[in-house]
Structures are given as structure tokens and as C-alpha cells.
Amino acid sequence: MQMSILNVKDLSFRYNKIEVLNNISFYVNSGDYIGLVGPNGSGKTTLIKIILGILKPNRGTVLLFGVNPLNFKDRHLIGYLPQRTHFNLYFPATVKEVISSGLFLKKKRVKNIDRFIDEIINEAMKLMDLVEIKNILISELSGGQLQRVLVARAIVNEPDLLILDEPTTALDPETRERFFQTLQELNKIKNTTIILVTHDIGSIGKYASKLLYIDKSIIFYGSFEDFCASKDMGSYFGEFAQHLICHRH
Ligand code: ADP
Question: Domain check: are 97 and 157 in the same one?
Fold first, then answer.
């Protein structure tokens, strides 16, 4: 049986009196790659914040690796790249230092701790193609390079679950393509479970295996194959739009 990474049941949430999420239920298995899509204001970021235990639901339950996110301690299992990083770009830190700031040491007894840390950080830098610029200050990076640093920081613990909120808005098309390839490798080779929030419903099917479409409630959750074959989705999105989403898959 596949391990359940995340189990959301009958979840509702409101900011003051305004309901933003209504009766959401879904679950995520180990190795899933989910595109989380929906119009602006549909509750995607709010859902992610609840999953991470940043917000508390009004109704329903969430189990993250079997644990209520509000009591979740094993932070190294999760990598998170928030939408707008409140990251001080002018902080005088190098690429390598920023990546190491994401490190939680899970193995406490290691013979040569400094070497162990160095190896882990190098691995993340290699994956994100940052080795050559490891000693550069982050204030000197391009938007694409900085994004890769932040992703490296999110994956430095080799998390089982990686959550990325609109990660590609600052990237040029070529960097974006490479970025998606890296995510796919993490998913395939390391079996990292990925939840990727995106606006780009037109191309997420090229990468993700499942689509979670929300608009306050769940409109669709399942494989792209099922989405593309669904008559209901054809009438919800219009057949033309459904075709646009599906033809690249
Ligand atoms: P999405 O990520 O899909 O764009 P959000 O989860 O950010 O959607 O927002 C969902 C709704 O909740 C929007 O209408 C937004 O204006 C509202 N909202 C988001 N954050 C807050 C907040 N801190 N206080 C009140 N309303 C909020």
C-alpha cells in the first residue's frame, strides 16, 4: 500500500465571516505530483497554509504524515517554497549560507558533522546548478538564480513532501523549463511527493500526474487522463478550454 502523505477531510475555513474553503476532502499518496490550480482568490494559498499548520481550520481534519499539522514536529520531512518570500535580498549572505539556513539535522549522531553538512549542501547545490556561484552574495543574483537558491534551500533536507507556491513567476522560459525538469527528477528518482500551486493550467499537465482544481470547493481531483475524459469538466470549463488543458499532456 502507498503511504498517505496528506489526508484532508471535510475542511472548511473562513477569514472572519468570509468562507474561503468549503468542505474540502482529498488525499495525497507518496510519490504523487499534484498541480494545485484555481482562479485568483480560490483559496490555494490558504489551503497550503492550513496543510502547513500556519492557519487553523474552522471545520474538518488534516493529517500530515498522520499528524495534525498544528502538532507536527518533523519539519525536515517538508520543503516549502512560499509565494512571496519575505526574504531580505540585501542580507549579506552567500548562496551557500542561504541554502544551509534551510537545514534541519535529522541524524544527530554523525562522525564528521561538518563534512556531513557540506555533502548535503553540495548535493542540493549540484541539483539546482549552483555550485559555481556558491560564494556569491544573494544580492548579486538574477531573479532566476535566486529562485534556484530558494528551491535548493527547500530541498536541502531531501524532504518527502515538497510544496511550491507559484514558483515560476520570476523565471524566464528556459530557466522555467529546467526548473520543471529538476522537479520531475526529484519526483521520479527520489520519489519526492510534490504539490505545486500554479496559475498555469495550460501546461501543468506536462509535468504533474494529478490535478487538484479548487474554487472554494474541489471542482476536480484526479489524474489528467480522467480530467480530459470527463464530460462534467468539459461542461464546467467548456470543451475548448478542456482541450487546451489536455492537448499538451
Ligand atoms: P489564491 O491563493 O487561490 O489566490 P488565497 O488563499 O490567497 O487564494 O485567498 C482566498 C481568499 O481569501 C481571497 O478572497 C483573499 O482575498 C482572501 N484572503 C486571503 N488572505 C486573507 C487574510 N489574511 N485576511 C482576509 N482575507 C484573506
Answer: yes
Q: Is 15 in the pocket of ligand 1 (CB under 6 A)?
A: yes
Q: How far is the CA of 46 from the centre of ligand 1 (A)?
A: 6
Ligand 1, atom 18, residue with closest C-alpha: 15
The beta-strand segments (E) located in the chain are 4-15, 18-29, 33-37, 59-64, 78-81, 161-165, 193-197, 210-215, 217-223
* Domain total in the chain: 2
Q: Is 238 in the pocket of ligand 1 (CB under 6 A)?
A: no
**Residue 238 grid cell:** 467548456
Looking at residue 140, the DSSP 8-state letter turns out to be G
Quickly state the pLDDT bin for 177 (edges 50, 70, 90).
Answer: confident
- Tell whether 204 and 153 lie within a shared domain: no
Phi, psi of 202 (to 5 degrees): -70, -30
The residue length of the chain stands at 249
Decide if pLDDT at 83 tops 80: no
Question: What domain range is 227 assigned to?
Answer: 200-208+219-249
41 pocket-lining for ligand 1 (C-beta < 6 Å): yes
85 inside domain: no
- Residue 115 counted as domain residue: yes
Residue 239 inside a domain? The answer is yes
pLDDT over 60 at 118, yes or no: yes
Residue 155 domain-assigned (yes or no): yes
